[in-house]
Each structure stands twice: as structure tokens, then as C-alpha cells.
From TrEMBL:
<protein>
    <submittedName>
        <fullName>Related to cytochrome P450</fullName>
    </submittedName>
</protein>
<dbReference type="GO" id="GO:0016705">
    <property type="term" value="F:oxidoreductase activity, acting on paired donors, with incorporation or reduction of molecular oxygen"/>
</dbReference>
<dbReference type="InterPro" id="IPR050121">
    <property type="entry name" value="Cytochrome_P450_monoxygenase"/>
</dbReference>
<keyword id="KW-0812">Transmembrane</keyword>
<keyword id="KW-0503">Monooxygenase</keyword>
<keyword id="KW-0349">Heme</keyword>
<dbReference type="GO" id="GO:0005506">
    <property type="term" value="F:iron ion binding"/>
</dbReference>
<dbReference type="GO" id="GO:0004497">
    <property type="term" value="F:monooxygenase activity"/>
</dbReference>
<keyword id="KW-0479">Metal-binding</keyword>
<keyword id="KW-0560">Oxidoreductase</keyword>
<dbReference type="InterPro" id="IPR017972">
    <property type="entry name" value="Cyt_P450_CS"/>
</dbReference>
<dbReference type="InterPro" id="IPR036396">
    <property type="entry name" value="Cyt_P450_sf"/>
</dbReference>
<keyword id="KW-1133">Transmembrane helix</keyword>
<comment type="similarity">
    <text>Belongs to the cytochrome P450 family.</text>
</comment>
<feature type="transmembrane region" description="Helical">
    <location>
        <begin position="6"/>
        <end position="30"/>
    </location>
</feature>
<keyword id="KW-0472">Membrane</keyword>
<dbReference type="Pfam" id="PF00067">
    <property type="entry name" value="p450"/>
</dbReference>
Length: 500
């Protein structure tokens, strides 16, 4: 019996060795992807990417940049995926191609049931259609008064710091503002994070752990499921600040449950439906997609997608303006002159017309590249071509916005903050198509108009009213070192300023 089992073990081991060699030969020489350039180790095993993502903590993007330097504009970055660095190529994102998202990559969000994480193109269309009308430019314009209330709160807090020499952490302030705006806009409920004296510093610190945890989940699975199953007392034991994040998301879930339950028993038309009501009433969404648990996932996604992105863009843009005081001064003068002429503070649509402010916003979006992820897509219908290369059907292909934003041929001195590059209208028109912070194609950002409104109104409020100086903040405190889909700097200090 013992003999038989050791024979079986030997046979199993032999089988594993032969299978491994077979897979290696296939990946290196036989698959259609074998003819694409790239490091052999990356072609051989997905553990190469796992190592850079998990052990080196979100550093695969640097590795990919190195691959492009060595192998050219198209590289094989894993046994399964190609990456392209070519600002003029849009093939993987063409709306008419009806491409899928790469399910494995988007596992990091922990929900393939919300539109953002939905892999299948057609299913995504249905889910997104039920949300689209809620995020139009007109809808955002009507939100102007509420947006003013939230930016005024920030302004009042900052007034209190004037002349004290006490540093204000604007990174936390901006993230709190973005959270309040997202929840007020989507659910008509502000969590008033902007009202907490330290701008919810520990909440913001704890919530920023999730992108890194999500990266581990992408590679190993289960991790986010374990987190969601954790009882509150255990979360409190591991990280007390995590409890406030847990309570926040639980409140969003219970708010959604309440709306869904009430919707089942009431026929009454609401005067002011929020996004949950709108999805419930959408004729496009099938009944199974109106289940409370799924709508709660959508709700969570709106907050997740709308906060770190906007918070980071505001932080990076403000940093660069303060590091270049003459640019901050020029911005201030432009806004103040426009206010004087209008005899009142400008509304969002009017702010958009200001040449320098609009250039600052564009340059801020470019230089911050607030989505660091490489946005892979899969064409399951036909092979696509990149120059002489034919990319087989079903191959994940990705491109990284930061590479386009940092391309020195398009944007000379790309890491220098130069709103001036957008001032000439024809030059702006030429360059604008390379500024793609909101993604491309059918999966492009749903909250783009809300994001623009936040950026314009917050920057205008800040720079017309306050004279600020950087406080113990260096460029490195804001620059992307890690890619956890959101860009992360090495330090956790954030943007700190003193207000004159
Ligand atoms: C400066 C701020 C923002 C930036 C740079 C940004 C960027 C992006 C990008 C690049 C994507 C596509 C991601 C992908 O292809 O996987 C995206 C998707 C999305 N964004 Fe934003 N975003 C911002 C603000 C917002 C806001 C304020 C909201 C709403 C509150 C929002 C909601 C969403 C949603 C729901 C999606 C998923 C769309 C879909 O798949 O149908 N975003 N965003």
C-alpha cells in the first residue's frame, strides 16, 4: 500500500513536471502571443507580475515602461496580455468594437456585478444605460448650489487657519470634499467629512488601504471576501480607523436597502429621485439587476470611483500651483477680474470659459494621471491590428494613460506643470485629444461632468480667496511611485499648506 502511494506520488510529481514543461514550451514558443516581444520571464509566468504588484508593491508599471524602452511600442507583459505605448492608437477602446473588460484585472474592485467591474460589453451597456441620464452635464449644472455649499464649508474651515502658521492637510480636505460631493450628488446625503476638524484624516488613511488590498485580491482572490465577511469587532481590533470605513459603507448599503424596500410598496412618483431610485425605475434594467445587493454595489462604486480620483487631481494641481507662485498669482488675478466684471462669484459654466483656469484644470488632469491602472480590454469578436502585428481574438490589450500624458514628443518637459501649453486655442485643440484622464470608449468615466464641476469650483474658490504656502511638502509627497489602480506616492504625508 505504502509502495503504491509512493509510486502514485512519483507519478503525480512527474505529471506536474511534464505539464509545467508543456505549458512553458507552449507559452514561450507555440502560442500566437509568442511572436510578440517582451521579457521571457513575463511570457513564462504570471508570477512575474505578481512579484512586482504584491511584493514590490504596485511597481509593475515601472517594469512595463522599461519593457517599452527595450522592446518597442508593443510588448507582451504576461503569458496572456499585451501592452501598447502609442498615443495615436485607439483600437482597443473603439466603441464600435464592443470590447469587454479583462475580468481578471478588474477583480481588484471586488465586484463584477456593478457596471464598473462588469466584464461583458453588452451587459455593461444595459447597466450603464440605467445610470447615464443621472450624470449628464445639465444634471450637474443643477447641482451647482449644493456644490457651492460644500466648497463654502471648506472655505470657512480654511478661514480659521488664516495667519495661524498651523499646517492644513489639503489632501485629506480634498478627499473629504470629494466624498461629500459624491454622496450628496448620488444619494442626496452628505456624510459631512469636510466638517470634521482634521478632515477625517484616519478615515482617509484607512480607506486608502483598499486599493492595495484589491491588488492582492486580483492575484490571489478571496481576500476582499474575507474582509467583507469580517465582524465589526474584528475590524476594530485590527484597525480601529477601519471601523469608520466599514460603518460608512454599511450605511450606504442600508440606505440602498431602505429605498429598494420602500419602492416595492409605494407607487408614488418622487420629486427628487436619487441614483438608486433612478436605477429602480429604469425600464432598461432587468428585474434581477434591481436587487438591493446589486444596487448597493453600484452605490459603493460611485463613491469609490469619485473620491480618490478627484481628491488626487485637486491635490496634485494645487501642489504645482503653489510650487510655482507666479502661476497661482496669474490664476488668482484672472478669477478676481472675472468676478469683478460679473459683480458676483462666477458660476461653474462661467468658470469654464476662463482661459487660464481651464488650462490649469487640463494640465492638472494631465500631470496627475489620477487613474494609474492600465485599463485592459478584450476584443472577443475579431482580431485587431497594431502596425504589422495581428493581435489574436480574445487577447487582453492594455494602455496606460500616464504614458501618454508623460510622452515628451507630445508634451515637452512632461513632468513640468505648464498650463501655458494649452493657452493657444489651436494648440489646445491639438493636444486635448491626448489628455485622457477619464478613459476612453464605452467604459469612459460616468462622472466626468461632476468631476469637472468639482475641479473648477474648488480651485476657483481656493485661489481667489487664499494665499497659501507649501508646508513641509515636496514633489515626492505627491508623485506616483506605486500603481494600485490609483496612483500612490511613497510618503503618506499628503499636501500640507500654511494659509497667510
Ligand atoms: C478627476 C476625477 C476623475 C477621474 C480622473 C476619473 C477617471 C475615470 C476613469 C479613467 C474611468 C475608466 C476606468 C476604466 O476604464 O476601468 C472612470 C470610470 C468611472 N468613473 Fe470616474 N473619474 C473621476 C471622477 C469621477 C466621479 C466624480 C464619479 C462619480 C461620482 C466617477 C464615476 C465613475 C464611474 C461610475 C465609472 C465607471 C463607468 C463605467 O464603467 O460605466 N468618476 N473614471
Amino acid at each position: 500500500m505504502a509502495m503504491a502511494s509512493s509510486f502514485q506520488i512519483t507519478l503525480t510529481l512527474l505529471g506536474i513536471i511534464v505539464a509545467t514543461i508543456g505549458v512553458a514550451i507552449y507559452r514561450l514558443f507555440l502560442t500566437p502571443l509568442a511572436r510578440f516581444p517582451g521579457p521571457k520571464l513575463a511570457a513564462l509566468t504570471g508570477w512575474y507580475e505578481t512579484y512586482f504588484d504584491c511584493i514590490k508593491k504596485g511597481r509593475y508599471w515601472v517594469e512595463i515602461e522599461e519593457m517599452h524602452k527595450k522592446y518597442g511600442p508593443i510588448v507582451r507583459i504576461s503569458p496572456w496580455e499585451l501592452h501598447v505605448d502609442d498615443a495615436d492608437w485607439n483600437e482597443p477602446y473603439k466603441i464600435s468594437s464592443r470590447v469587454d473588460k479583462y475580468h481578471w484585472y478588474y477583480k481588484f474592485v471586488g465586484s463584477s456585478a456593478a457596471a464598473f467591474g462588469t466584464a461583458d460589453h453588452d451587459l455593461h451597456r444595459v447597466r450603464r444605460k440605467a445610470q447615464q441620464g443621472y450624470f449628464t452635464q445639465d444634471a450637474v449644472a443643477q447641482f451647482d448650489p449644493q456644490l457651492r455649499v460644500i466648497t463654502s464649508k471648506l472655505s470657512s474651515w480654511l478661514e480659521g487657519f488664516k495667519g495661524t502658521g498651523q499646517p492644513v492637510n489639503l489632501s485629506n480636505a480634498f478627499r473629504s470634499l470629494a466624498t461629500d460631493v459624491a454622496t450628496e450628488y448620488c444619494f442626496h446625503k452628505s456624510y459631512n467629512l469636510i466638517d470634521s476638524p482634521d478632515f477625517a484624516a484616519s478615515f482617509q488613511r484607512a480607506i486608502r488601504d483598499f486599493p492595495q488590498i484589491g491588488t492582492w485580491h486580483r492575484h490571489f482572490g478571496l481576500i476582499l471576501d474575507v474582509f467583507s465577511a469580517m465582524p465589526r469587532w474584528l475590524v476594530a481590533l485590527i484597525d480601529p480607523a477601519g471601523v469608520s470605513v466599514l460603518d460608512f459603507f454599511n450605511d450606504i448599503v442600508s440606505g440602498t436597502n431602505t429605498i429598494v424596500a420602500a419602492h416595492k410598496t409605494s407607487e408614488a412618483q418622487l420629486d427628487n429621485p436619487n441614483i438608486i431610485h433612478r436605477m429602480l425605475e429604469s425600464p432598461d434594467l432587468p428585474a434581477k439587476d434591481k436587487a438591493a445587493w446589486r444596487l448597493a454595489l453600484e452605490a459603493r462604486t460611485f463613491v469609490g470611483a469619485g473620491t480618490e480620483t478627484t481628491g488626487n487631481t485637486l491635490s496634485v494641481t494645487t501642489y504645482h500651483l503653489l510650487a510655482n507662485p507666479e502661476k497661482a498669482e496669474r490664476l488668482k488675478k484672472e478669477i478676481q477680474a472675472a468676478n469683478r466684471e460679473a459683480k458676483r462669484p462666477l458660476r461653474y459654466q462661467e468658470l469654464q470659459q476662463l482661459p487660464y483656469l481651464s488650462s490649469v484644470v487640463l494640465e492638472g488632469l494631465r500631470i496627475s494621471s489620477s487613474v494609474a491602472g492600465r485599463l485592459p480590454r478584450i476584443n472577443t469578436r475579431e482580431a485587431i491590428k497594431y502596425k504589422d502585428h495581428v493581435i489574436p481574438v480574445g487577447t487582453p490589450v492594455s494602455m496606460t494613460q500616464k504614458m501618454i500624458h508623460d510622452n515628451p514628443t507630445i508634451f515637452p518637459s512632461p513632468r513640468t506643470f505648464m498650463p501655458e501649453r494649452f493657452l493657444d486655442p489651436s494648440e489646445r485643440k491639438r493636444l486635448e485629444r491626448y489628455v485622457q484622464p477619464f478613459g476612453r470608449g464605452s467604459r469612459a468615466c460616468l462622472g466626468i461632468h461632476l468631476a469637472y464641476a468639482e475641479l473648477y469650483c474648488t480651485l476657483a474658490m481656493l485661489f481667489q480667496s487664499f494665499d497659501m504656502n507649501l508646508f513641509d511638502t515636496e514633489r515626492e509627497d505627491l508623485e506616483q511611485i506605486r500603481d494600485f489602480f490609483s496612483p500612490f506616492p511613497e510618503s503618506v504625508k499628503g499636501l500640507r499648506v500654511a494659509i497667510e
